[in-house]
Amino acid sequence: MPSHINRPSWYLPDNAATDEHLFLNRRHFLKTLGISGLMVGGITSTSFAEEPTPAAKLPLPEFARNPKFADAKRAITEEHVGTTFNNFWEFTKAKNVHQYTKNFNLDPYTFTIDGLVEKPLTLGLEDIEKLGYEERVYRFRCVEAWSMTVPWLGVPLAKLVALAKPTSAAKFVAFTSFYDPDQAPEQRVKSKYKWPYYEGLRMDEAMNEMGFVATGAYGKRLLPQSGTPLRIVTPWKYGYKGPKSVVRMTFMDSQPPTFWSDAVKSGEYPFYSNVDPEVPHPRWSQATEKFITDKANVADVEVIPTLHYNGYEEQVGHLYKDMPRKLI
Question: What's the CA dihedral at 97, 59, 233, 198 to 10 degrees?
Answer without folding.
Answer: -70
